[in-house]
Fold ATP-dependent protease ATPase subunit HslU.
Amino acid sequence: MSTMTPAEIVSELDKFIIGQQKAKKAVAVALRNRWRRQQVAEPLRQEITPKNIMMIGPTGVGKTEIARRLAKLADAPFIKIEATKFTEVGYVGRDVDSIVRDLVEISLKQTRETEMRKVRTQAQDQAEDRILDILLPSARPVGFGSQASSSESAEGSATRQTFRKRLREGQLDDKEIELDVELPQLGMDIMGPPGMEDMTEQIRSMFANLGGGKKTRRKMKVKEALKVLTDEEASKMLNDEEVKSKAVQNVEQNGIVFLDEIDKIASRSGELGGGGGEVSRQGVQRDLLPLVEGTTINTRYGMVKTDHILFIASGAFHLSKPSDLIPELQGRFPIRVELDSLSVQDFESILVATDASLVKQYQALLATESVELEFADDGIRRMAEIAYSVNERTENIGARRLYTVIEKLLEDVSFAAGNHAGKVVRIDAAYVDQALGDIAQSEDLSRYVL
Ligand SMILES: Nc1ncnc2c1ncn2[C@@H]1O[C@H](COP(=O)(O)OP(=O)(O)OP(=O)(O)O)[C@@H](O)[C@H]1O
């Protein structure tokens, strides 16, 4: 569990998200409250439920990004779900409980990776041993029941030492060897009939147990073999039951569910009740309520209590208001934060100032082909202005517009990077105007191209 203070959390989020201080503060407090709750003694601890958050703001201004980065900081299992998914016409089958089931799957993968990292060094040693056994069948270390004489074994172990050194130095990387590797587990998903999720889960777990543990002989280079065998050895060292129970616990104590488009399942202001859509939207709210209030869901890995999962709902609320949600659900999202629309200046910062900004990404990509991209300040400004004005004139998709703008701008350089190798490509306002000016001027063109 993260022990960061709210100020530390906000400063971490600042590295990736421009502005939106109110939302950052709200999620930072929510995360800190989880830690605080853990410090409270039982039975009071059980009584403290998360203060779920509702983020209100237009599309593409960083709502999902804030939640996702928060989850990453806290190493928390995270899932994003569109609430409208459950209202789609003809949508039968997967119920809202599947949100929790999917979250547990995500948590399992995450927990497994964390646990694998812990045993990695030990697993690497074992993998090396297995490769040395293949490379030097006669120099196997003297083990239980071995008949080798002591002089033979001394000689063998010296050779083994030499080979181990060469292996570690990468000298044997390209040598081909043949080895037995475990077949991966069957990766199929089983769709069950609607309303029979529990039975489907049982069938899935029956199949999940098939196929594992079988071996097949494969040829590969030592370098790849080391990787495959390290994974195999690491996974042998893990206790599956322990991993499962940790994964479930992680969901219960740390899980974050991001419910997007919550506004679209609210009643539309002004719409007279009784329509089919209305019924279905209210139905989804009623279905979601127990999850948010706290219930127990049966999953493949055991029962999961949702009481302490943090829910972050998000929506633009253009056509409806939070007060159009059913009262019980409103009460479960007591923290409301509004996110601001992004300005030209924000766009400029998003392009250059974040840790993994778009500009840095493109510079790194093209540097691999010895092309140096240099962005002048006026070039950045012009890109931001174009993105902003296209958003205003066509559809406002927020910072997502920057992706299409920069992609189009660098289309030619990206395509012919080979011709620019060793050169500096300077992107200034004139360059941007020349590449994008015509498109940005024409509403029709920008609709299709940007
Ligand atoms: N304030 C911001 N700072 C940095 N990057 C941002 C910001 N706002 C948006 N972005 C970038 O734009 C993209 C879209 O943002 P995000 O997914 O957070 O949108 P959203 O507000 O959740 O909208 P929607 O509700 O439509 O999903 C992301 O890749 C994100 O990195």
In short: The pocket of adenosine-5'-triphosphate is lined by residues 17-20, 59-65, 260, 314, 350, 354, 398-400 (CB under 6 Å). The chain is about 55% helix and 10% strand. The domain at 344-449 is CATH 1.10.8.60 (Helicase, Ruva Protein; domain 3). The chain has a mean pLDDT of 85.
